[in-house]
Design goal:
The chain is mainly beta. About 5% of the residues lie in helices and about 50% in strands. The chain has 7 helices and 37 strands.
Length: about 750
């Protein structure tokens, strides 16, 4: 870390520490969203802690990194169904919008890179949830944030316990627990552009002589007609149906030892008329929410299935364990415009049409013998494994947390291209493709992962050393474009075996019960896949933090520095590649920055009113530290000192709430600085950057009776028109102003 940054950091810490001493101890009222303010960075409750990123930690000092928990009260306040809007309030989270609804988010942490969230570890209830976390980690499936009870974001040296991607951080989405009291929840919402959401949750608990049984059934259906328009009024919206069911048994208090068994099943189906074809600069300026006629057949269809068996037990007073057996299946076929074939038979990628100013070819009838080719990105994913975690408690607050996981996953690509003619009546198929001709292979991985993390307490110090290992084997079986029958004898095979050891150390010092300082260092890692000659990405990740918690004000200040070697890139259509999915190296890079978070109540001494305020800010400086050439468009020719693309240097979020009696009103403001779309070091210009975005959201809520609430909200209050992306092809807008009205009834 640069000396100037260190001096600024410690100066701010000293000023904050001095100002806190003058604060009084007035408590928040329960209806002032005190769970967000007074427990903002606390370890989750006992039930959530058993499945979350804080599992095994008895206090925040045992989490060697920056853990942020978005609690139920906060998720309910804005009632977002877009995960990107939820995560905007967390510092250190890098987001690149795409479709306006957050269907397939691009999320990174601390400058890790955000391409399809492939460089962070994604989990649901503590279990890997990406379609194929090792062999194809790009997250074309993302759990519905609207049915989550809480969301946990972990950055820093706690990565020892969560992998395989350990360079940036981990996000865990926690579903509602079955335990508690019997009851039901129903939520309904209607919004602009034909938006709709219906959500039902039913929990049942009953006692028997052998223990307690509980079940939870939940269904979510949401969709929209879309805010973009196509010629002939073709659809641009989506529908998504999401359901889970859980059954849990917990032994009675008279049993020999405390244990529980839980079975969980889930099913998701999505149909979305989404495209990778954006707009030219001129067309965006004229009508930013139009779509080209050539994209009218673009359609994503997907289905996700999950099953999980969990056993938890307290074997002794000091030894507790949890074992998960899981299996996920995901199928998707994103049928979308891929390239243009001219009359001479030459092919032109979608991106090249934009770069050469030929987007008229996507709007006017195709010339004789010319074709628009749509690719069926038809893929099946399987992810399964068994994972065991344990906690061994020692004397004086010391303990050992360990885990081991045996995992395998696979992605089956069986893809083709169809030729279309664009006519006055729309897109007409004229040349059906041969299945398997545009992709016909199996990619798979097997992995044995393990970790151990200790907690050692000495006076006000807490040390959390840890070590993780990953033993992996990646393989590919490519049958070729002319082998639809998949004759294995003619297939091209390759295998890559990788072994890695990842140490880490966290140190926490409690200055007082209310003020802590922490630091951490760990070795990060991104798997290389089966691509010959590709090296594993490794990094050295460090952080230094200051955390305070008062009854009127709390917050966190963190400085981080990450250094990457053999930086990993991925050839995804989503980021402007050809879609092979191959991984490749891109030299070295480093990121450093500062995260600031603070909450307070401006009217804490007022009995009738409450005014919670929450502020977050993230500064990220991400640069390449070597020269290299790359066929990957956003990198291209890189020079030492060039900035990484699609990483905003400045991000900020402010939330203001006013509460009185049964009424509450919230205003949220988020700012994202302009982002480069290609690596470079020159001054920002319109051609190779996104727009700086300033977006306001607001919601008014009233509780009409116990358990029954109504709300009226508006997203993008001032209807800002913003370019949020220029990849994979053309300009893409943020969602325009959207009104929504809804109700929530819990019994």
């Amino acid at each position: 870390m640069r000396p100037s940054l260190c001096s600024i950091f410690f100066t701010i810490c000293s000023l904050l520490g001095g100002s806190l001493a003058a604060q009084d101890s007035a408590e928040f009222s329960e209806d002032s969203i005190s769970s967000m303010l007074s427990q903002w960075h606390a370890i989750p409750g006992a039930e959530v802690a058993s499945v979350g990123l804080g599992a095994g930690a008895r206090g925040l000092d045992e989490v060697p990194g920056a853990l942020h928990v978005i609690r139920p009260a906060e998720l309910e306040r804005y009632a977002y169904s877009d995960p990107l809007r939820v995560l905007r309030s967390v510092s250190g989270v890098n987001i690149q919008e795409e479709d306006g609804y957050g269907l397939r988010p691009n999320i990174g942490l601390r400058g890790s890179g955000s391409d399809r969230s492939a460089r962070i570890t994604l989990m649901e209830d503590g279990v890997l949830i990406a379609p194929a976390p090792y062999s194809a980690p790009a997250a074309y499936y993302f759990p519905s944030i609207a049915r989550m009870e809480s969301v946990e974001v972990l950055k820093g040296s706690s990565q020892i316990a969560f992998g395989p991607q350990t360079a940036g951080g981990a996000i865990n989405m926690v579903t509602p627990q079955t335990s508690g009291t019997s009851g039901a929840l129903y939520r309904s919402e209607r919004s602009s552009f034909g938006g709709h959401l219906s959500h039902l949750r039913i929990r049942q608990v009953w006692q028997t002589k052998k223990g307690t049984w509980s079940s939870l059934v939940e269904g979510l259906h949401l969709g929209s007609e879309g805010f973009k328009t196509l010629p002939n009024s073709s659809p641009t919206g989506f529908t998504k149906t999401d359901g889970i069911a859980k059954v849990r048994w917990e032994a009675s208090a008279k049993a020999r030892f405390n244990q529980s068994i839980e079975v969980k099943g889930g099913w998701v189906q999505e149909t979305s008329h989404e495209t990778y074809a954006g707009l030219s600069e001129a067309d965006f300026a004229n009508s930013p929410f139009q779509r080209y006629a050539a994209s009218s057949r673009d359609l994503m269809e997907s289905q996700h299935r999950q099953a999980r068996l969990r056993h938890e037990a307290e074997l002794t007073a000091r030894w507790s364990v949890r074992t998960d057996v899981y299996r996920m299946r995901f199928h998707r076929n994103w049928y979308k415009l891929d390239r243009y074939q001219d009359a001479s038979g030459d092919h032109h990628s979608l991106l090249s049409l934009y770069e050469s100013g030929q987007t008229a070819l996507l709007q006017q009838p195709t010339a004789q013998d010319a074709l628009l080719q749509l690719k069926a990105n038809n893929r099946d994913y399987v992810s399964q494994g068994i994972e065991h975690r344990g906690i061994v408690k020692g004397q004086s607050g010391n303990q050992l947390v360990y885990g081991v996981r045996l995992h395998e996953d696979e992605v089956d690509r069986f893809e083709w291209r169809d030729g279309y003619a664009l006519t006055a009546d729309g897109m007409q198929m004229v040349q059906p493709g041969e299945p398997g001709s545009a992709g016909n292979r199996l990619d798979g991985a097997r992995a044995l992962a393990g970790y151990v993390r200790g907690t050692v307490r000495r006076s006000g110090w807490t040390f959390t050393p840890g070590l993780r290992t990953e033993q992996m084997e990646f393989n590919r079986l490519d049958f070729g474009a002319d082998n639809a029958a998949r004759d294995g004898e003619s297939a091209d095979q390759r295998t890559n075996r990788v072994s890695v050891w990842l140490p880490g150390l966290g140190v926490n010092y409690s200055i007082s019960d209310e003020v802590q300082m922490f630091t951490g260092v760990h070795r990060g890692f991104i798997p290389p896949g089966s691509t010959p000659g590709t090296q594993s990405e490794t990094s050295l990740n460090t952080e230094l933090g200051y955390r305070w918690s008062k009854q009127r004000i709390n917050g966190q200040l963190v400085a981080f520095f990450n250094s990457y070697n053999h930086l990993m890139g991925s050839d995804l259509t989503a980021n402007g590649g050809i879609g092979s999915g191959d991984l490749f190296n891109g030299g070295s890079a480093r990121t450093h920055g500062v995260e600031c978070e603070m909450t307070m109540d401006l009217l804490a001494s007022n009995d009738a009113w409450s005014a919670p305020v929450r502020l977050t800010y993230t500064y990220t400086n991400a640069r390449f530290t070597s020269d290299f050439e790359s066929d990957f468009g956003p990198w291209d020719t890189v020079r030492d000192g060039d900035f990484l693309p699609y990483l905003a240097p400045h991000q900020g979020n402010a939330q203001f709430t006013l509460i009185s009696g049964l009424w509450s009103g919230e205003m949220s403001y988020r700012y994202v600085a302009a982002m480069r779309t290609v690596a470079g070091n020159a001054a920002l210009d319109f051609v190779e950057t996104t727009d700086a975005a300033s977006i306001f959201d607001a919601v008014i809520r009233r509780e009409f009776r116990s358990g029954f609430q109504g709300y009226l909200g508006v997203n993008n209050l001032f209807d800002a028109v913003v370019v949020v992306a220029k990849r994979p092809a053309g300009l893409r807008p943020a969602m325009p102003r959207l009104f929504r009205i809804g109700m929530r009834w819990a019994i």
